[in-house]
Amino acid sequence: MISIGNGYAWNLLAATVMGLQCFAAGHSVYDARKKYKVDYPDMGSGRFSAKLSDKEWAEFNNIMRVHQNYVEQLPLAILSVLVNGLFNPIQSAIAGEVYIIGRFIYAYGYKSHGPKGRMTGAMITILAILFNVGSSFVGIYNTLKSA
What we know:
Main location: membrane
CATH superfamily: Membrane associated eicosanoid/glutathione metabolism-like domain
Protein name: Microsomal glutathione S-transferase 3
Mean pLDDT: 94
Number of strands: 0
Order of helices and strands: HHHH
Largest sheet: none
Subcellular location: Membrane
Keywords: Membrane, Transferase, Transmembrane, Transmembrane helix
Organism: Smittium culicis
C-alpha cells in the first residue's frame, strides 16, 4: 500500500521549482529574441537568425538550447521526482534539488562557454534523473511484489 505523508510536499516543491526554472529559461529566450531581433517562428536557424553575426548566432542558439534541453528533460525529471517520492520522499526530493542545481550549472556553462561549458551541469542532471528513475522502478517492483 502506498501512503503519502507530509514529507511528500518536498517532492511537490521540487517539481514546482523545476517547472518555474524551465519557465525562466524560456523567458531568457524571449529576452534573446528581443536583443538579437530574431522573431517567431525562427528557432535559431531561419531567416531572422541568418542576419546575425557568427558570434550573435552562437549566443542566441546557446540560450535557445538551454531552454530546449530543459523542455526535453522536464517530463521525466518531474515524473521521476513525484513517482520516487511515493517510495522515498526525502531522497527523491534531494535528488530533485540536485537536478535543479545541475540545471543552473548547465545554463550558466552553456550561456557563458558554449556547448562544452554545459557538461558538468549535464552530468549532474543526468545522475539525478537516473537515481530517481532507478529508485522509482525499485519502489514499484517492491510494491507489486508485496501485493
